[in-house]
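Posted in: Protein Modeling Q&A

I'm a second-year student putting together a small comparison for a lab meeting, and my supervisor asked me to include a predicted structure for Alpha-1,4 glucan phosphorylase. I've never done this before, so apologies if this is the wrong subforum. The sequence is pasted below exactly as I got it from our records. If anyone can share the structure token output, I'd also love a short note on what stands out.
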Amino acid sequence: MKELNKEEFKSEVEDYVKVLFRKSIKEADDQQIFQAVAYAVKDFIVDQWMATHRTYEEKDVKTVYYLSMEFLMGRALGNIIINLKGNQAIKEAIEELGLNLDVIEDQEPDAALGNGGLGRLAACFLDSLSTLGYAAYGCGIRYKYGMFKQVIENGYQIEKPDDWLKYGNPFEIKRPEYAVEVKFGGYVSIKKDEETGRNKFVQENYQSVLAVPYDLPVVGYNNNVVNTLRIWDAEAIDTFNLDSFDKGDYQKAVEQQNLARTICEVLYPNDNHMAGKELRLKQQYFFVSASVQRAVMKYMEKHDDIRKIHEKVCFQLNDTHPTVAVAELMRILVDEYNIEWDEAWHITNKTCAYTNHTIMSEALEKWPLELFSRLLPRIYQIIEEINRRFVLDIQRAYPDDYGKVERMAIIYDGQVKMAHLAIAAGFSVNGVARLHTEILKNQELKDFYQMMPEKFNNKTNGITQRRFLLHGNPLLADFVTKKIGDDWITDLKHIDELSVYTDDEMSRKEFMNIKYQNKVRLAKYIKEHNGIEVNPRSIFDVQVKRLHEYKRQLLNILHVMYLYNELKKNPDKEFYPRTFIFGAKASAGYHRAKSIIKLINSVADVVNNDKSIDGKIKVVFIENYRVSNAEIIFAAADVSEQISTASKEASGTGNMKFMLNGAVTLGTMDGANVEIVEEVGKENAFIFGLSSDEVIAYEHNGQYNPRDIYNTDGDIRAVLTQLVDGTYSSNLDEFRDIYNSLLDGQGGRPDMYFILKDFRSYAEAQERVSAAYADTAKWAKMAMLNTAKCGKFSSDRTIEEYAQEIWHLEKVKVEVTTED
Ligand code: NBY
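Accepted answer (user: helix_wrangler)
Welcome! Here is the predicted structure, written out as tokens:
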């Protein structure tokens, strides 16, 4: 690996400030310095980037295309520097220029091209693919506006546009030479092919846009590998053609320009919720068609037999959002390469694989036939034919069971069901944690599992320790390396070697002192950004994730209200001071989620300003939770709140980031929590609440009545009453909807999230947390064991499993030569 040369680097930064801004370092502002430093770093990685792609071509390796509507990358600069192992040299170079690396890193806007777990998982996967040396492209959309910026005004969430490209993105490279056309609308005609004499299906009178790729580098850790995240932008295909200026063409030209302008404008800010908007389907087909077309072209540049594409290409579908890929590949094979249907279908089957990220019914993608066939007429025909044949297969397998077709068909009730298409068309269907995969097999996708059990497999999620420990928590990273060496950076299993130090008092003290310093860092952030003073000696109890009813931020804040009542009743009660920290964005149209944010802020106002409780409880809502501040938050947490209604959280990945940073899980037996507890031991976590089997049983038999709890439990009744009696808002209707949802549920069904049902068990687990924390040595050991036992949860392990069991990739070594 080429060494970073300090002097060279310094003069590059000076040159870039000059060339880009006609300024000296002294004259440039922080953003300009960031840009110059980023260009200097990019200069350094470009050789590795070229060497990587040259090596892939020489070795003709199989490539995975990770198709995803979302890549929640966060900031690039700090991460790239770390993966180049250039931290020391660059830090020194920058200091010698009279600058500060932290301040420079802070100038970079987050690349927030994603909502939450699904998008961040894609980002962690790219980091691991490069670090492990696998050939991969991330394929997505270059949204002009990413995840909205959240501002809290009077306790309410306000959404502001995220203009992340305002100053340009120094790391991207536009590749107009790889632009492709993507067609929408029109109709399909049958034409005789002159050469073959066969019928051909051609789309006519369509509108099209030009998909133009921008490449971003994905730098592996200390191995010369740089993969590519390719995000597509839309441009009008040709500006006004003045020669044919008749009315029809003029209209069409304007429409095409509008289409190009709108397609990549903004990320849909829904997490686990399908909005069903036409523009969203346009976005999906736009980036999928462009990515699949390019992958096929690239394959055919080096190979002559399209029938063997599965030997060199795999498309991994990140949830159902890119599922039109299977129909697009069929279209290319059948319409453009004249391959017979059956053979095209087999090729497609061997090339596509699908990951399921949720069982929430409102997240299942279903598109109305009318919309789908109007927007994608040829793709729709192909899906109809896929469906016709699939229904025949179902009937052959289950001749006497008509319910099977009803439940399994791809097209049914006037809708296209994307999950059914993905399962029928791919060779692999995977869930994202063991429990989740079992629920898929035995409940949600039971019929599909019975018919095609060989397709189903589990890939428990993971996270990259390089961003979430090495970059986010340098103090703990140094501590770990000092104790056990640095193998953990690329092989997290080694972190288990820390276990022996949990019995050593000095090590425990050091560990807790690091936690304390990280709490001081977060307290400073909170003071600067929220104006709230928090005590770093208090327990930092943290719930950060998207706001959703199933994640139960409401359970957490109701418990805070309960604790506050308890303290008011018994002011002299032993109570270990706690800071309850929340961070969450609510989807813009999700009213109840927004009310819950308002409730958290209202409770914070009352509790934080009540002198009588002596600062024993503080509540903080951190504005604009995102990847960059998450790194600081995880490092400072004592308690990790993972309290979803059992069965609803497919995996969770925040739970793993907390664990890595030595926070103890307070959670339900849901998603990957089950495996976390298995690794760390149930004595080193605080588990409560209904099991997923119990929740599912209640869902089937409907025997849950929250009013019974309300009527018999006075403490719970008091808390609920305070939602509507003016304690937290002079507007008595402010939280009425929340109150009603807890007691009456929705659509005649009692609260589907079992908040009151789990309340007592949660409160009791919280008491165990307080007791455990008061025993300093015990807590230190638990916390440290969480770090030590998190080896399984590296995305390196997850990607190794995908690579071996689904993608069948080979590892590549990259040498940078003078050629580069
Ligand atoms: O994927 C999350 C799961 O909730 C979480 O349990 C899991 O750990 C993570 C990674 O596997 N799912 C998620 O983040 N989903 C979305 O963000 C999402 C976004 C958009 C839509 C659906 C789901 N949509 O239909 O528009």
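A couple of things worth pointing out for your meeting: Residues 115-118, 121, 268, 270-272, 274, 357-358, 363, 365, 432, 461, 649-653, 671 surround NBY (CB under 6 Å). DSSP finds 31 helices and 25 strands in the chain.
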